[in-house]
Amino acid sequence: MPLFREILGWSYFPLRFKNQIARNMRREPRFQLRVLSYHDMSQADEVLFERQLRWIMRSWDIVTPEEFAAMIDGDIPIGRDTLILTFDDGTVSNLRVAERVLKPLGIQALYFIVTQYALLSEEDDWQEFASRRIMLNQEPKAVPEEFRNMTITDLQTLLSEGHTIGAHTATHARLSELEGESLYEEIALGADLLQDRLGTHIRHFAYPFGNFESISAKACDVARQRFDYVYTGMRGDNMPDRTSWHLRRESNHPHDSLWYTGACLEGGADFLYSNKHRICGEWVD
């Protein structure tokens, strides 16, 4: 994988040149509509993250989740390559990054929150929850401080700053392992509880883990009955079909090289997910 990432990074400029030529040859240029996905970040990551965002913003428009939704629905025209930022799980580092990095850049993001994680009190063992439900491969005491849960008050702060809250299930369960009432409780009831506590309508949902093996046709059916916009963790451009129930996302990290990040945004890794997108697309037809 490191070799693949390095090779993909070197392909950034050829990919961008190819895409620009193809766009110029069209009677009506077609731009890309993508989603960048992040998780927790250490304070040391913030400098790299800001550098990454400033570099991306040279070529891409970063819009609000509301504008992105309108673009998916076809209500706003797209005149430039466009993306939104999302953050998964609801760690306290997301709140710090929103204040220190996103606010100065004028960026409003979409935060996918695990309901029961956000509802933990100060007396609850957040490290135990994180290690058992989210990180899976860490001992509780090894879970870093930046992975502490954001509280309902923290989420209300994000809302007051113009950010958007989405759902990420009740407990961060792998949905492909659930059926029936358990599936409904994780997806729909988990979001309803979070919505009631925040007093805001939750329209966006992201599958935990996000890979093809963690999603199922039954989970997809429950999600699209409850939400207007449903996101996977699989890479791709959302423009070709613009379905709101099978949105593609680019999984990123501040330590990713600029060229690797750019190559992914130009579609260099899309081919790895084409067949999986086709199957998921059949679930929402």
Can you give a write-up of this model?
The structure is a single chain. By secondary structure, the protein is of the alpha/beta class. The protein has one domain: TIM Barrel (Alpha-Beta Barrel). It is built from 12 helices and 8 strands. The chain has helices spanning 2-10, 12-25, 43-56, 65-72, 92-105, 115-118, 126-135, 152-160, 180-198, 217-226, 258-265, 274-284; strands at residues 33-38, 61-62, 82-89, 110-113, 164-167, 204-206, 229-231, 250-251. Strands 1, 2, 3, 4, 5 and 8 form a 6-stranded parallel sheet that branches. Strands 6-7 form a two-stranded parallel ribbon. Helix 1 crosses helix 11. The longest helix has 19 residues, at 180-198. The protein is globular.
Concise summary:
The chain is α/β, with parallel strands linked by helices. The protein has twelve helices and eight strands. The longest helix has 19 residues, at 180-198.
**Main β-sheet, in a few words?**
6 strands, parallel
CATH class: Alpha Beta
Order of helices and strands: HHEHEHEHEHHHEHEHEEHH
Q: Helix proportion of residues, in percent?
A: 40-55%
| Strand segment tally | 8
CATH superfamily descriptor: Glycoside hydrolase/deacetylase
> Using only CA atoms, what is the Rg?
18 Å
Average pLDDT, rounded to a whole number, is 95
